[in-house]
Amino acid sequence: MSADDARDGDSTDDLNAFVTRETVEGDADGPLAGKTVAVKDNISTEGIRTTCGSAMLAEYVPPYDATVVERLREAGATLVGKANMDEFGMGGTTETSAFGPTKNPVDPERVPGGSSGGSAAAVAAGEADLALGSDTGGSVRNPAAFCGVVGIKPTYGLVSRYGLVAYANSLEQIGPLANTVEDAATLLDAIAGPDEHDATTRYDAAEGGAPGATDVPDDVHPADATEYAAAADGDVDGMTVGVPTELVEGADDEVVAVFEDALADLEARGVETVEVSLPSVEHAVQAYYVIAMSEASSNLARFDGVRYGVDGGEGNWNESFAAAREEGFGDEVKRRILLGTYALSAGYHDKYYEKAQDARAWVKRDFDEAFAEADVLATPTMPVLPPKRGESLDDPLSLYLMDANTVPVNLANLPAISVPAGEAEGLPVGMQFVGPAFGEEAIIRAGSAVEE
Amino acid sequence: MTATDEGAESEADAGVVDPDEVRHVADLARVDLDDEEATAFAEQFADVLDYFAALDEVPEVADEPDLVNVMRADEVRDGLSQEEALANAPDSEAGFFKGPKVS
């Protein structure tokens, strides 16, 4: 991607990729020594404000580091700042940030994607070698695709969420962004692995081992037995790639054309492609939003203006609480809290939340069946090219539909990577590979073949 | 859209949402809204709930993973100091968080 050319005459400051610029040197040596890293602003950094892109936390300074930040420092990386994002991760364009939108370095009139838009823009513009984002329904892969960089959403439980400000715990994972698959995999190597502060990183043989990492003993966390960077070898000869027709049909023609060219290149390298079907994904976006909003309505109840955040002022507890939240939260956050409260309220719980859980189980089952026929699945990451800023903010539903290809992966707890597959109309198109649980090596291998 | 504590199963027509109903849910969620927000949300919620209604077609799917106990031993370990815990509070007094009166 010619990010450097596009940036001419448009200073990187103007991208608004960072909420806070501050440098913290890492340890002297380690696998990431000499590398600069941007960290999404919902990942806690001790002594450096962590805003989540929200006015609610404009002055919040965490008293501790997230586990991934500790691991970055131990690996020798230098933190260069806190990256801009959609408020609390709620958006796909980085336009809902209380600190203003981030521009796409490829075309400053367009959105960088989101919610980790600052992380992707910083990497694409050369403001950081690497970045961390978080992915609840596509928030690493979407901006990676729109900015023409690589992004990985790890299997649920591979990377610690300790210190990540929660939005929807059952769906989200912290993931790496970089200019190459190998760099992203190297960053994944540094952050992955069990953490006593996050019980969901505990890897347990009772779950039936790791279907995507069959060579790993059942009592070992897959991250402890795997070097992900080594899988970026481009050696896809003999690999079977499944193409879920439902997730290709919904994409724009120019996106599909780039996707199909990339598939043809893979076939030339010895990949066998097969069509697979995921009938449940028709309901994935609905299920995702019901679950994510429900979890958000509960998680964001902590912002009461007492322990941190905006002071709600005079009045009784309820009045003060409600005033703090009116002032501190933006529109999209309010929308999701309200819709989540509604979906969980008596009389509606069965209609929305229960049904969404059924759909989630159905999506998982569909993926299991597809992986009986293929090593990895491939789709366009985003069904559209990056929109212009301001085009879609007033129509929340149209923005939700943009997540059609990314949310099924989070519902099924699976790993996925987005890699640049080419351009259409001068804009980057991302290709997504989805793997079985803990099958990061397979998606990294497939992704590295596309970038060659 | 009428979220009541008694339930409203009969309100199958999710397509109609008025600003008062939005205000009721906002009240449950403890978020003040101005009139403009309540009106805009009513329109947007109608679209979104209409879309969610398609979940009706989803069949019941059994998903009961084996659950394992992940409790750790209950050992004393370092936590935040009182000073650190209070550092971000808008108001505190004598080492405590200071909140508004309860009623």
UniProtKB/TrEMBL annotation, chain A:
<dbReference type="InterPro" id="IPR004412">
    <property type="entry name" value="GatA"/>
</dbReference>
<dbReference type="GO" id="GO:0030956">
    <property type="term" value="C:glutamyl-tRNA(Gln) amidotransferase complex"/>
</dbReference>
<dbReference type="InterPro" id="IPR023631">
    <property type="entry name" value="Amidase_dom"/>
</dbReference>
<feature type="active site" description="Charge relay system">
    <location>
        <position position="40"/>
    </location>
</feature>
<feature type="active site" description="Charge relay system">
    <location>
        <position position="115"/>
    </location>
</feature>
<dbReference type="InterPro" id="IPR036928">
    <property type="entry name" value="AS_sf"/>
</dbReference>
<comment type="similarity">
    <text>Belongs to the amidase family. GatA subfamily.</text>
</comment>
<feature type="domain" description="Amidase">
    <location>
        <begin position="25"/>
        <end position="443"/>
    </location>
</feature>
<dbReference type="InterPro" id="IPR000120">
    <property type="entry name" value="Amidase"/>
</dbReference>
<dbReference type="GO" id="GO:0050567">
    <property type="term" value="F:glutaminyl-tRNA synthase (glutamine-hydrolyzing) activity"/>
</dbReference>
<keyword id="KW-0436">Ligase</keyword>
<dbReference type="InterPro" id="IPR020556">
    <property type="entry name" value="Amidase_CS"/>
</dbReference>
<dbReference type="GO" id="GO:0006412">
    <property type="term" value="P:translation"/>
</dbReference>
<dbReference type="GO" id="GO:0005524">
    <property type="term" value="F:ATP binding"/>
</dbReference>
<dbReference type="Pfam" id="PF01425">
    <property type="entry name" value="Amidase"/>
</dbReference>
<feature type="region of interest" description="Disordered">
    <location>
        <begin position="91"/>
        <end position="120"/>
    </location>
</feature>
<comment type="function">
    <text>Allows the formation of correctly charged Gln-tRNA(Gln) through the transamidation of misacylated Glu-tRNA(Gln) in organisms which lack glutaminyl-tRNA synthetase. The reaction takes place in the presence of glutamine and ATP through an activated gamma-phospho-Glu-tRNA(Gln).</text>
</comment>
<feature type="active site" description="Acyl-ester intermediate">
    <location>
        <position position="139"/>
    </location>
</feature>
<comment type="subunit">
    <text>Heterotrimer of A, B and C subunits.</text>
</comment>
<protein>
    <recommendedName>
        <fullName>Glutamyl-tRNA(Gln) amidotransferase subunit A</fullName>
        <ecNumber>6.3.5.7</ecNumber>
    </recommendedName>
</protein>
<keyword id="KW-0547">Nucleotide-binding</keyword>
<keyword id="KW-0648">Protein biosynthesis</keyword>
From TrEMBL, chain B:
<feature type="region of interest" description="Disordered">
    <location>
        <begin position="84"/>
        <end position="103"/>
    </location>
</feature>
<protein>
    <recommendedName>
        <fullName>Aspartyl/glutamyl-tRNA(Asn/Gln) amidotransferase subunit C</fullName>
        <ecNumber>6.3.5.-</ecNumber>
    </recommendedName>
</protein>
<dbReference type="GO" id="GO:0005524">
    <property type="term" value="F:ATP binding"/>
</dbReference>
<comment type="similarity">
    <text>Belongs to the GatC family.</text>
</comment>
<dbReference type="Pfam" id="PF02686">
    <property type="entry name" value="GatC"/>
</dbReference>
<comment type="subunit">
    <text>Heterotrimer of A, B and C subunits.</text>
</comment>
<dbReference type="GO" id="GO:0070681">
    <property type="term" value="P:glutaminyl-tRNAGln biosynthesis via transamidation"/>
</dbReference>
<dbReference type="InterPro" id="IPR036113">
    <property type="entry name" value="Asp/Glu-ADT_sf_sub_c"/>
</dbReference>
<keyword id="KW-0648">Protein biosynthesis</keyword>
<keyword id="KW-0547">Nucleotide-binding</keyword>
<keyword id="KW-0436">Ligase</keyword>
<dbReference type="GO" id="GO:0006450">
    <property type="term" value="P:regulation of translational fidelity"/>
</dbReference>
<dbReference type="GO" id="GO:0016740">
    <property type="term" value="F:transferase activity"/>
</dbReference>
<comment type="function">
    <text>Allows the formation of correctly charged Asn-tRNA(Asn) or Gln-tRNA(Gln) through the transamidation of misacylated Asp-tRNA(Asn) or Glu-tRNA(Gln) in organisms which lack either or both of asparaginyl-tRNA or glutaminyl-tRNA synthetases. The reaction takes place in the presence of glutamine and ATP through an activated phospho-Asp-tRNA(Asn) or phospho-Glu-tRNA(Gln).</text>
</comment>
<keyword id="KW-0808">Transferase</keyword>
<dbReference type="GO" id="GO:0006412">
    <property type="term" value="P:translation"/>
</dbReference>
<dbReference type="GO" id="GO:0050567">
    <property type="term" value="F:glutaminyl-tRNA synthase (glutamine-hydrolyzing) activity"/>
</dbReference>
<dbReference type="InterPro" id="IPR003837">
    <property type="entry name" value="GatC"/>
</dbReference>
<keyword id="KW-0067">ATP-binding</keyword>
